[in-house]
Q: What sequence folds into this?
């Protein structure tokens, strides 16, 4: 190997390709040039079916790549790569005599028409189901794989392996982030992910609509602000507490009432997020809390059924519970339902026992929690 040549000249290209797959052809071209090959590719091969997917290639005729995937991958003499150690460099003659290779269908029908005479490969990753490998092929002018080519590929293979691993993690993150964003945008409730300072990291479509109205919630310098000064102070303190992992908030969150200018009632549920959740969601700055905002209505079809099923309430007990929340005390409920006050009190006692509550206010909070988009 000549002293003036080093993989350091293009290692950056390899890691750039890990983050932007469109750059892999250029990186593979540099790898082929450095190893004295004419084409290079990263392939993923199924261990049992022998099926192959060409993840990235450079220098190959796309038509022959497709033919390889569809027809010749199963007869590739280098299929035993599955049993080779990661980063170990091999060539055709490590698996088959060169005479047998030249007599086989793989060479005669696929390699020879392209002018390929040999290939050097390195396993990048493997599992029980599949393995990924880097292959660099040579034509007749370059000759068979030699010690120098193998040495050069050994220098490059670990970087390609790491880059492929990074790429897989990045693809997973992108997929998770896409699902994450689609899920939030699909909620009818406004959702805001915020930092400890109240700065909005992400707002879903419904949340953006709330901010656009500039009513009970709006944004100033990217910070979430409540129109009511007292509620705004409460939100600030809760966001700061969430950043510190304050157990006062609890994993179930806290509900805060909000009112619009025309006195429409809304409820904001603050849910603390585990440390680093913002980063794992693909967001540049870590969110410490999620704020879910929805109208304080109890007309969700699943709300009564959810409460009854959770606390094993009878139909009458459920009616009393919802009436207490909607109408008021026992006398008012008795009049509204057309039953005796004593009967209401009997059912209410059972509701308290089953739900672990003691006061009317506790029942209101209980129903509000079940109205939360987090629990519906």
A:
């Amino acid at each position: 190997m000549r002293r003036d040549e080093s993989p350091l000249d293009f290692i950056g290209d390899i890691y750039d390709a890990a983050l932007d797959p469109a750059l892999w052809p250029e990186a593979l071209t540099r790898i082929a040039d450095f190893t004295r090959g004419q084409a290079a590719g990263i392939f993923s091969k199924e261990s049992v079916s022998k099926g192959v997917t060409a993840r990235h290639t450079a220098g190959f005729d796309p038509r022959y790549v497709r033919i390889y995937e569809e027809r010749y991958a199963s007869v590739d003499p280098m299929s035993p790569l599955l049993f080779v150690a990661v980063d170990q460099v091999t060539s055709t003659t490590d698996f088959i005599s060169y005479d047998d290779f030249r007599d086989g269908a793989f060479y005669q029908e696929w390699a020879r028409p392209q002018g390929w005479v040999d290939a050097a490969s390195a396993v990048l990753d493997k599992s029980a189901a599949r393995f990924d490998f880097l292959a660099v092929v040579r034509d007749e002018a370059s000759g068979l794989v030699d010690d120098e080519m193998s040495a050069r590929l050994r220098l490059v293979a670990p970087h390609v392996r790491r880059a492929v691993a990074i790429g897989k993690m990045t693809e997973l993150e992108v997929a998770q982030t896409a699902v994450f964003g689609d899920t939030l945008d699909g909620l009818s409730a406004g959702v805001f992910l915020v930092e400890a300072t109240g700065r909005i990291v992400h707002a879903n479509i419904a949340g953006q609509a709330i901010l656009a109205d500039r009513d009970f919630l709006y944004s100033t310098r990217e910070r979430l602000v409540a129109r009511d000064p007292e509620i705004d102070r409460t939100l600030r303190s809760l966001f700061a507490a969430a950043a510190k992992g304050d157990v006062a908030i609890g994993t179930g969150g806290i509900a805060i009432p909000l009112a619009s200018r025309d006195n429409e009632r809304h409820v904001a549920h603050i849910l603390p997020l585990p440390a680093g959740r913002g980063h794992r969601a693909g967001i540049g700055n870590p969110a410490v809390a999620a704020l879910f905002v929805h109208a304080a209505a109890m007309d969700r079809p699943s709300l009564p059924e959810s409460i009854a099923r959770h606390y094993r309430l009878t139909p009458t007990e459920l009616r009393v519970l919802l009436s207490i929340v909607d109408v008021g005390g026992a006398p008012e409920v008795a009049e509204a339902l057309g039953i005796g006050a004593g009967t209401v009190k009997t059912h209410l006692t059972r509701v308290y026992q089953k739900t672990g509550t003691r006061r009317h206010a506790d029942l209101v909070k209980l129903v509000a929690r079940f109205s939360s988009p987090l629990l519906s």
About this structure: The radius of gyration is 32 Å. The chain has 14 helices and twelve strands. The mean pLDDT is 81.
